[in-house]
Amino acid sequence: MRLLIQRVSQASVTVDNQTISKIGKGLLILVGVGHKDGEAEATFLAEKAANLRIFEDEAGKTNLSVLDVKGEAIVVSQFTLYANTSKGRRPSFIEAALPDIAEPLVNRFAELLRSHGVPTQTGQFGANMLVEIHNDGPVTIWLEK
Q1: Is 78 a catalytic residue?
Q2: Which fold has domain 2-140?
């Protein structure tokens, strides 16, 4: 399972000209699911994301988590995080889990993030989404398990 976490001042997800998710300060988390991923990966990464200290404290040090700053999260499924570009010019996505495996695991990850106390919204699995990201910093972190 792969996460691309962006610290945001605000973010939103729009599908068919309808905003389905919108947050202020917090995390936009793109989630990719591989063939071997399951509950253990989702559990580990949800705890890690909830407690990742990437927000600044009063001294300007990155000592605070999304929980500490009372932030929110949007979780967006992103199978392209498993793109293999080692050959040719067209990425291969064969390492990404199929939708019937990936969708429940992305939803489980979002549920686990909520269970840690992070108010969490989601994108719409499989939809063509317009994701608006106001990356704060910019801070972008790659996590994998």
Answers
A1: yes
A2: D-tyrosyl-trna(Tyr) Deacylase; Chain: A; (3.50.80)
